[in-house]
Design goal:
six-stranded mixed β-sheet; 11 helices; about 50% helix; binds octanoyl-coenzyme A
Length: about 260
C-alpha cells in the first residue's frame, strides 16, 4: 500500500505503522487519519499480520494531537465529522482482532494520548509526555479521551489531566497505569518489536478472545461479563492451537502454534 504521511512495514508477522509528519510533530490532520484508517483495515485483512505497532517518526513526538491548524476554522458540523471519523478509526484499532502496541516516542498530547489509549499496550520512551491539553485551547478531548482516560487511570486523575490540562512524564504515566513499560528512547522500538514478535507467535484466536472478553466485558454486569468470558474461552476449544498447546504440555515439549 502507498501512503504519504505514514510508513507501513511488515516483518515477521508484525506490522509497524509510523506516523510520518515530523515537521508538525506528527499531528493528525484528516489526511493522516484517513491513512491510519486504511492501514488498520489492511492489518485486519492480511492474515500474515498477527501483531501491530503504532509509533511516530523522529525522536521528539509520537503524536502532538489533532492538527490545530486544520481545526482552527472548523464549523461545528465539520468538527463533528472529523471527530466521528477519529472515533471510528480509534475504535477500529481498539477492536482489531490482533494485538496493537503503541510505541510512544515523545509527545503524546490530545489526540496522541487518545490514539495510544486505543491500543492494547503502551510502551513509552523516557522522554515521552502524555496529556489532554485541549482545555488550554478551548476544547475538550473529542476522540474518546474523556472515556478511555477515566477507565484507565480513574475519574479523579482523568479530571486532573483533562480539566487542568497538565502533562505527565513517562515515569508518572507508568505510576498511574497509563503506560505499561518505559524504556530509553533507543530501546523503545526494539522492545516493542520483541514483545510484538512474542505476541505474533502466540495462539492468535485465543489472543482475539482475550481482547474481546476484556474489551466487551468491561461495561457489562459481572454476571454478563463472566458469561461472555465463558463463551470466549469455550470457543478456544474449537482451535488447532488449543489442541496443540495442551498436547505439547502433556508431551513435555514446546508447542508449535499455527494461529488457528
Ligand atoms: N497541530 C498542528 N501543528 C502542531 C501541533 C498540532 N497539534 N503540535 C505541534 N505542531 C507544529 C507547530 O506548530 C510547529 O510548527 P512550525 O514549525 O511550522 O511553527 C511544529 O509542530 C513544532 O512545534 P513547536 O515549535 O511548538 O515545538 P515545541 O517543542 O516548542 O513544543 C509541543 C512542542 C509542546 C508539543 C507544542 O507543539 C504543543 O503544545 N503542541 C500542541 C499540543 C496540543 O495542544 N495538542 C492537542 C490538540 S487538540 C486534540 O488533539 C483534540 C483531539 C480531538 C479532536 C477533535 C477534532 C475536531
Amino acid at each position: 500500500m502507498e501512503f504519504t504521511d505514514l510508513l507501513f512495514a511488515v516483518e515477521g508477522g508484525v506490522a509497524t505503522i509510523t506516523i510520518n509528519r515530523p515537521k508538525a510533530l506528527n499531528a493528525l490532520n484528516s489526511a493522516v487519519m484517513g491513512e491510519i484508517n486504511a492501514a488498520i483495515t489492511q492489518c485486519k485483512k492480511d492474515d500474515a499480520i498477527r501483531a501491530v505497532i503504532i509509533t511516530g517518526a523522529g525522536e521528539k513526538s509520537f503524536v502532538a494531537g489533532a492538527d490545530i491548524s486544520q481545526m482552527a476554522t472548523l464549523r461545528p458540523q465539520q468538527a463533528m465529522a472529523f471527530m466521528e471519523f477519529g472515533i471510528e478509526t480509534f475504535r477500529m484499532i481498539e477492536t482489531l482482532p490482533k494485538p496493537v502496541i503503541a510505541a510512544v516516542n515523545g509527545f503524546a498530547l490530545g489526540g496522541g494520548t487518545e490514539l495510544a489509549m486505543s491500543c492494547d499496550f503502551r510502551f513509552a520512551s523516557e522522554n515521552a509526555r502524555f496529556g489532554q491539553p485541549e482545555i488550554l485551547i478551548g476544547l475538550i478531548p473529542g476522540w474518546g479521551g474523556t472515556q478511555r482516560l477515566a477507565r484507565l487511570i480513574g475519574m479523579g486523575r482523568a479530571k486532573e489531566l483533562i480539566m487542568g490540562g497538565d502533562q505527565v512524564n513517562a515515569q508518572r504515566a507508568y505510576e498511574i497505569g497509563l503506560v505499561n513499560k518505559v524504556f530509553p528512547l533507543d530501546q523503545l522500538l526494539p522492545e516493542a518489536k520483541k514483545f510484538a514478535a512474542k505476541l505474533a507467535n502466540l495462539p492468535g484466536f485465543a489472543l482475539k478472545m482475550a481482547k474481546d472478553a476484556i474489551n466487551f466485558g468491561y461495561d457489562l454486569s459481572l454476571d454478563n461479563a463472566m458469561r461472555l468470558e465463558t463463551e470466549c474461552c469455550s470457543q478456544c476449544f474449537s482451535t488447532d492451537d488449543q489442541k496443540e498447546g495442551m498436547k505439547a504440555f502433556l508431551e513435555k515439549r514446546k508447542p508449535v502454534f499455527k494461529g488457528c
